[in-house]
Design goal:
The chain is of the alpha/beta class. Helix content is 34%, strand content 18%. The chain contains eight helices and eight strands, in the order E-H-H-E-H-E-E-H-E-H-E-H-E-H-H-E. The strands form two sheets. It has a five-stranded parallel sheet, covered by helices on one side. The protein has a three-stranded parallel sheet with strand order 1-2-3, with helices on one face. Strand 5, helix 5 and strand 6 form a beta-alpha-beta unit. The longest helix has 17 residues. The protein is elongated, with a radius of gyration of 18 Å. The N and C termini lie far apart (40 Å).
Length: 197
């Protein structure tokens, strides 16, 4: 039996929907016990391995593996489309970057913002004129692939927190395999990224 730890359950930020669950000491102990009693533990990132590898002597990191999906990019309409998509667990990360992104989008001609996620997070972009932004409803993985066809630059803002340092680099990979230029935070989560390439 192999147990997977895919999030830093000891450092869940208080705005994350799973925060209350993982603040419970019984839940924290349960996760640790399950990891110990299984034959091995697998992690989705090196950060999680460093943090929790001690829980079981048999442990390994299995990085994300994404199958490249052939995409037909949208026809060029003269606009550069910057986009982000993700879960509510990124609320604070996106809110912080929005303070810089909104003025850039408002003051730069031929730039359009595309967003796929929670309407609560989309409120961070209320100050962008409707003509310069598009909201996509959350859907299936295929809806997400369609979203990626419509953006040129994908952002992956992560604040440098213990929880985020233990995330995987899946957002970078999703952008890269779909011919979207990734702009990511300079934290250990994205060590695979080569600046400028």
């Amino acid at each position: 039996t192999v147990f997977e730890i895919s999030d830093d359950f000891m450092h869940v930020p208080n705005w994350n929907p799973s925060y209350r669950t993982y603040q419970n000491p019984d839940i924290q102990q349960l996760v640790k016990r399950m990891a110990w009693y299984c034959d091995g533990v697998q992690f989705t990132s090196e950060g999680l391995n460093r943090q929790y590898g001690y829980l079981n002597p048999q442990h390994a990191v299995f990085p994300n593996q994404i199958i490249a999906v052939p995409t037909e990019k949208r026809p060029c309409d003269g606009n550069i489309r910057i986009g982000w998509s993700g879960s509510y667990s990124h609320l604070e990360d996106v809110d912080i970057i929005a303070k810089h992104l909104v003025p850039f989008l408002n003051n730069t001609p031929n730039v359009h913002f595309c967003f796929m996620g929670s309407e609560d997070i989309f409120k961070s972009f209320n100050n962008i004129p409707e003509s310069k932004k598009t909201f996509y409803k959350i859907g299936t993985i295929y809806d997400y692939y369609d979203f990626l066809k419509n953006i040129d630059i994908g952002i992956a803002p992560l604040e440098d927190t213990p929880f985020n340092r233990s995330r995987s680099d899946v957002k970078f990979l999703e952008y890269a395999v779909n011919s979207v230029v990734p702009v990511v935070s300079n934290i250990s989560t994205y060590d695979a990224v080569e600046h400028g390439r």
